[in-house]
Amino acid sequence: MRVLLVHFFTFLLVSFADCRNPVSLEDNGYRDVLVAIHESIEEDPLLITRIKEIFTSASSHLHLATEYHTYFNNVTILIPKTWSDNLTEAAATTERFDLANVIVDQPNTNYGHNPYTKQILKCGDPGQYIHLTERWIKDKQFSWYYWGDSGKVIVHEWAHLRWGVYDEYPEEEYDHFYYDENGNVQPTRCSEAVTGKSLNISDNYKECNTDPSSGVMPSTGCRFFPDLDNNEATASYMYANYLDSVVTFCHGNDEKDQKAKHNRLARNKQNKQCCYQSVWEVMLQHSDFGEGNEPAVDINVTPSFLVVQEIELRIVLILDISGSMNTNDRFDLMIQASTKYIGYTVPSDTWLGIVEFSTDATILSYLVQLSDTDTRKQLIDKLPTGTGGSTCIGCGLNSGIEVLEHGWESPSGGILFLITDGDENVRPYIEDVIDELVEKEIVVDTLALSDEADPGLAELSEETGGTAYWYSESDSSTGLHDAFTDTITSRTSSSTSTPVQLSSYKTTIAAADTLSEYVYIDSTIGRHTVFFIFWDFSSTEAVHVVIKSPDGSIIEDGDTGKYLEDYNTRTITVAIEGLAQSGQWFYNITNPDSVDQVVEVSIESTSTDPDADPLRLQSTVGSELITESPPQVAIYATVHRGYEQILGANVIATIERPSPYDPIDLSLLDNGVGADITGDDGTYSGYFLDFVDAHCEQACRYAVQVTADDGHGTTNTRTLISTGAMPTNYDVIPTEGDPVPIGDFGRVASGGSFQVDENVHIPGEDEDPYPPSRISDLESPSSNYDEQTITLRWTAVGDDLDQGTAEYYDLRYSTSFSEILDHFDNATQITNDDLVVGNLTSPLPSGSEENFIVWLPTKGTGTTYYFAVRAVDKADNEGDISNVAQNTIVPIPTSGLEWWEIFLIILCCVLAIAIIVWVTVCAMHYCQMKNKTKDSSKTANTEDLDNPSYVVVY
User: Fold this and answer.
1) Residue 338 DSSP label
2) Is residue 840 part of a domain?
3) Given pLDDT bands bounded at 50, 70 and 90, which one contains residue 467?
4) Assign residue 273 a region: left if phi > 0, alpha if psi is -120 to 50, beta otherwise?
5) Which of 59, 368, 521, 639 has the greatest number of beta carbons closer than 10 A?
6) Mapping DSSP to helix (H, G, I), strand (E, B) and coil, where does residue 68 land?
7) Is 915 within the bounds of a domain?
8) Rounded to 5 degrees, what angle do the CA atoms 19, 24, 28 make?
9) Residues 906, 881: one domain?
10) 561 assigned to some structural domain
């Protein structure tokens, strides 16, 4: 088998974040940084002016912050095609909003106007994009008041995006303060040289935590506010970039500036995710700071800017018509999928061309703009009609380049969608064309039909920034139609006119039997709703379809204009007029034939409101080419509505494997375990490990389809407390909202495919090369002074990364932070005998919450306990050491009295008042009686003078 010669970097595990606009570093300067403005933003030249000002400032700050290693050399600003031409210096080529490094769009519900970076990969891996809002850019007074110098904010976000570091400020309520090794309470900050005050934002900003040696954590609501004036700390950009004194990132070098020294004890995401490395330590592992990029001090760091205007997609279908395409109805299926693609999936105004190839190639259509239904029909009529010949993939690619260049200044940014089943056997080969494709910045998506397709397809896509797909030809695979759909939806998800795929599956219907199913049309979709039913090419009779709307209306064969049957492509299309009703739609598919039929169903719709985002599902894989042993790949999916993340969804990835192995279902979770670095952020992740040692004809490929639904009523959206770049005032952070149920919905998306290099070793049944994942959310929420205990909790990881159940936990503690982190094996091991609650030898399944209560030998002020844990599997593979949790056992003063204490106090007060009243009344009564006695005495004395018979004795 011939192996394609590929460039070295192809063999790296490339994250899907790298599929965005590539930024290069040359002579210390970043080139081709793309800032894109969304079409929903109204035209305003001031926005462009401010972007230029902000990035000019950022370039100077970045140069200093990276010790003269980097700056922004040139920045491209992409404006919407709806804006005026007079603002544009050139037409866009490769630039698209969905690929931009920095986007300018409406606010994210969770962040408001806070700048932030979408970051879902592990420490050291790049982020996806930086999100800025129009107001933050244009309203200089507003942004400066809350975030300080806008240029410094960009440096903060660039560190996330480029080098994969994390924030050094506290994110959770319990992270704002921590115990140092002397048991003193300190505010979370980096560096420790940052001075400031601790104030209670819940109590009129009264001062709190005035005695750090008290050993008692401040009350809820206490926050640390750095001093804006006279602060001497020089770091860190990832903590409080708004401080004038901050000019660099925290480092871990004892010989460098101590006012920028990394604070390993601080409870922040950088420490938790990067194993307590400083930001500089992570940065230095990036190629930006490797050999060949020495610091440059005396250079001009003012960037140049180019304003370009967005253009429509340019796509060329490159279709294989070689003789082998007659096998298993491959040619007919390709034409079937191409017809749906041209007729319905491709957005209006897209430019589309067609090339067929076998022994050589023929251009069937140069680029034509899809402006109306007639244009689409004309282009469908130009699809290939027959097969024959050998396989010259390079010929098809060369003709595709010619189509993109015909009548256009540059082919850059054009997309070639190559569909083939063959192992190329006629020159030019892929390797003869790939350099030209890369040089001309042409993207190539590839769809491998069957196991027989050339092994170089995945590598071709990866090198050109495209996506590789695979159709296995199994009776359950929807990979063909899913690939055609995903080439559009993955590129235009920011447009409300892009279709949403609600259902996609294939099933066998027995002779004379009926399949009854349903689909939910939720409130976010309803326009251009279309049911596609594809029946078997081996059948002579079309299936019968009946669709029932929520109000009981019926659509069936004979409804002119709604129900269309195309015998040539074995397709029934049912288009719903106007806005489809929200609710449950039922449909029946009857097979009238005397033999079983394989039927495929695909249902699509678009946003209810052209100005409102629909609920979408998007998925991708961490790498399209697996080259390392043992093999592993992360699968990611996001469920979102615009920038609003959908939580609690039931997300399942179905992975097709090489024949004869069955597909496997993998739950993708949003719980912060394994591949998922942040829980409850709307990104669902999981590791796929079930590789098989198959005898593949050309290459061992795996295809991914992801489905998402409402999870039996658990799905919701809510505003979470997120900050982006830390503001000077917490008032600007959106308030966390209550969950809002989403209701019934269903979504389907292709995750593309991945291919395993032939040199990769597939583990056998007797091998266990995968350790448990690292636990990254260990925390200690409380302690009990009387019981002398500390509570610990974390999320369980698996036996193999995030899959299965670990064998036991190795939990340890120390009163030295350095010992638990740097010399874990020397720390004191906790056994089940030390536990009040929990069992270390019976871990829960991956994703479960673990709770333990540990008895410890010492309590009182001055002793801080540091804890870390690692999971161990049956083969004694040890996971990496977790983040460090800390706590102390001191008496915690209560903020109030118990109910019975209050009752006794009130009772005592009542009794005291009653006694006082009783004494007062008695005293008054005594005085009155005494006065009466005196009056009586006076009367008696007078009478004695008149009557001597009375004698008064004194």
Assistant:
1) H
2) yes
3) very high
4) alpha
5) 639
6) coil
7) yes
8) 155
9) no
10) no
The β-bridge relationship of strands 746-756 and 779-784 is: unpaired
Q: Helices 140-147 & 150-163, crossing angle to 10 degrees?
A: 70
Helix, strand, coil percentages (3-state) for the chain, rounded to 5, are 25, 30, 45
Beta strands per DSSP E along 562-690: 563-566, 571-575, 583-590, 597-607, 615-621, 625-626, 633-641, 644-645, 650-656, 664-668, 683-688
> pLDDT (tens digit, 9 = 90+) per residue, 756-787?
999 999 999 999 999 999 999 999 999 999 99
747: phi then psi, degrees, rounded to nearest 5: -140, 150
At residue 560, the pLDDT reads 84
Tokens 């996806």 -> residue = 128
pLDDT digits (tens, 9 = 90+) for 880-898: 999 999 999 988 655 444 4
Query: What range does the domain containing 699 cover?
Result: 633-756
Report how far residue 556's alpha carbon sits from residue 563's, in angstroms, rounded to the nearest whole number.
Answer: 6
Can you state the angle between helices 479-489 and 330-340, rounded to 10 degrees? 30
CATH code for the domain in which residue 320 is found? 3.40.50.410
- Residue bearing tokens 């190629």: 287
Q: What are 129-185's pLDDT values in tens digits? A: 999 999 999 999 999 999 999 999 999 999 999 999 999 999 988 899 999 888 889
Q: How far lies 256's CA from each of 96, 115, 266, 295, 695, in Å?
A: 42, 30, 20, 17, 56
| Residue-averaged pLDDT of the chain | 91
The token pair that represents 554 in the structure block: 């019926």
pLDDT digits (tens, 9 = 90+) for 788-809: 999 999 999 999 999 999 999 9
pLDDT (average), residues 337-363: 97
Q: Are residues 724 and 807 in the same domain?
A: no
Domain end point (choices 255, 290, 325) = 290
Beta bridge pairs of residue 117: 130
Residues in the chain: 954
541 domain residue, yes or no = no
The distance from CA 522 to its chain's CA centroid, rounded to whole angstroms, is 23
